[in-house]
Amino acid sequence: MADDEAFLQQELEISPIVTGLHDTLSERDREVLRKTTECYGILKDLALYAEELNSESFLPPINEVRDAFDHLMRMYSVLFGLRGGDGEYIKENLDAVFRHVYRASFDYLDYIRIYQKDYMHQRLEGISQQTIVNLFPEYYREILPEIESCLEDIPLYKASKDIGKPDMETVERYHAKVLKLRDYCAQINKMAPALIEAESKLREEVEQRERKESEIRRVEAWKYLLFTIIGAIIGGIIGALVLAG
Fold it and tell me: I want to staple 100 with a disulfide (CB 3.0 to 4.6 A). Which of 68, 112, 225, 241 is the partner?
């Protein structure tokens, strides 16, 4: 309890300082900081999802975040009076923070899109269309058209990326598409075990049918050969009898 009260008191002491620091920022700089915070929320979600798709680190966005943090500390060092700098210096560094976070978000979005496409392909690889239609009809009816639509829209978002004139709406729309694809990946992953089992049974049935058909053809071939031999023997006997007569 004492620790909680001490922590609360510390927060109360720090809050006016932080509020005062932010009050020294211009309205324009506060808006940039707000957009950066909003963009970082998306970036963090993407970073966690990227780790789910691939455990290997993806360096480009990590480097962007590192550079963004460096510029953020430069700004706060001025606000705390640890180094010299004017409003223009703060503005330049705040803009740099946003640019780095913005670029990192697009790096992750592009990276995730590639892995999502590969992931869905790998999970359904070797599964016949017949099996998917039988067990997972909504895939061709709803999911696949939506996936193709998302993959067609995404290059448009990439093309509209402009570091000089960043647009948070573009990031949000791109993020929404990736989230939709994530839901589809989850649905495919959920159905994958049943699809694999059904495909295995289907292949066993096909193999059994082919073996039976092969056996029937083999029997028919032997019958044909046997009848041919018998026919030849009978023909030979008849021919011999005719000659003897």
Answer: 68
Is 210 within a domain? no
d(CA 193, CA 236): 64
- Give tens-digit pLDDT for 119-161: 888 888 989 988 999 999 989 888 888 888 877 776 666 666 6
CB 158, CB 106: distance < 8 Å:
yes
Range of the domain at 48: 17-193
For residues 107 and 174, give the distance between their C-alpha atoms in angstroms, rounded to a whole number: 12
Buried b (16+ CB within 10 A) or exposed e, 167-198: eeebbebbbebbeebbebbebbeebeeebeeb
Instruction: Tell me the two tokens of residue 38.
Output: 């909003």
Domain assignment present for 98: yes
Per-residue pLDDT tens digits for 112-129: 888 888 888 888 898 998
- Number of neighbours of residue 150 by Cβ within 10 angstroms: 19
Distance of CA 207 to CAs 106, 128, 157, 203, Å? 48, 15, 47, 6
What pTM does this model have? 0.69
The answer as to whether 216 is a domain residue is: no
Q: How far is CA 156 from the centre of its chain?
A: 18
Domain count of the fold of the chain: 1
